[in-house]
Write a structure and sequence with these properties.
- This protein is an alpha/beta fold.
- Helices cover 44% and strands 19% of the residues.
- The strands form two sheets. A five-stranded parallel β-sheet has the order 5-6-7-4-8, sandwiched between helices. Strands 1-2-3 form a three-stranded antiparallel β-sheet, with no helix packed on it.
- α2 packs parallel to α4 and α6 crosses α7.
- The C terminus is likely disordered.
- Bound molecules: zinc ion (ZN).
């Protein structure tokens, strides 16, 4: 008798061996397989064994998916304080409902907006909950296995400047920014502007727009206020509402009422 065989479509003349499976007590069958002019008899693998292997395969795939997502999360740079923020635990309040809805739609329609390179300019006063909303988008997409890169804009500049004395590679940081499936730039306009910060931001945004990759920008400032702090070419890019729909988050300080 040959080895056990699982593929039930290749054997013929199924026959009860009279034996029982030691695991599930089902009868054990054998079958003949004809190929290349020869005939071999195989024990047919018990269904309980097939089920067990399938379950194991599913568990392995799930574990692999979890590892992949954990790695994506790790590399995303999303701060730990935003790790568990979701739309489900966001409580929309007066003034923030529209921004909340826009962000939920954005996350749900991501494959479509991504293919068109559509991002968002999400602005509102400090504490209005816009960073929380942007983090909810990030978490939703990371859970789906989409690469997201998160940078607080001030930290991004500091991190790049930190490489200038030979620590790490600024190119690597910039490549991470320009290649991510979604780049989220949090709190634009809070940084101290310089010619260098302006030129750097223009390079990042321009590269992403040319590559049709979406970027979400959050800011405490309306665009006309941001104009004092950013390269005019950056402002002109963000003014393009086909690429950066402007979403106002008008809620009063979210942190003050947060439970
Ligand atoms: Zn069995």
């Amino acid at each position: 008798m040959g080895e056990e065989i699982e593929k039930t479509n290749v054997w013929s003349e199924k026959r009860d061996t009279g034996e029982k499976c030691s695991n599930c007590d089902r009868p054990i069958f054998e079958g003949k397989v004809h190929f290349w002019g020869t005939t071999q008899v195989y024990k047919i693998t018990c269904q309980c064994e097939i089920d067990k292997r399938n379950e194991q395969r599913k568990a392995d795939e799930e574990a692999q998916r979890r590892r992949y997502i954990a790695d994506l999360r790790h590399r995303s740079g999303l701060p730990r304080k935003w790790e568990n923020v979701t739309f489900e635990n966001f409580e929309p309040r007066k003034g923030t409902e529209r921004a909340c809805k826009a962000c939920i739609n954005y996350a749900e329609q991501f494959p479509s907006v991504q293919s068109r390179g559509i991002g968002m300019y999400l602005f509102g006063t400090s504490g209005s909950g816009k960073t929380r909303l942007a983090a909810s988008i990030a978490n939703k997409l990371l859970d789906k296995g989409i690469s997201v890169k998160w940078w607080n804009v001030t930290s991004l500049y500091l991190e790049i400047q930190g490489t200038f004395n030979g620590n790490g590679s600024s190119q690597e940081i910039l490549d991470d920014c320009t290649n991510a499936g979604l780049l989220i730039l949090d709190d634009m306009g809070a940084e101290k502007p310089s010619e260098w910060t302006m030129a750097t931001m223009y390079d990042i945004l321009n590269t992403r727009i040319d590559d049709v990759l979406p970027t979400i920008i959050t800011s405490n400032l309306k665009l006309e206020e941001l104009a004092n702090k950013a390269d005019p070419r950056v402002i002109s890019r963000i003014r393009d509402k086909d690429i950066f729909p402007h979403i106002a988050d008008d809620a009063t300080d979210y942190r003050r009422v947060e439970k």
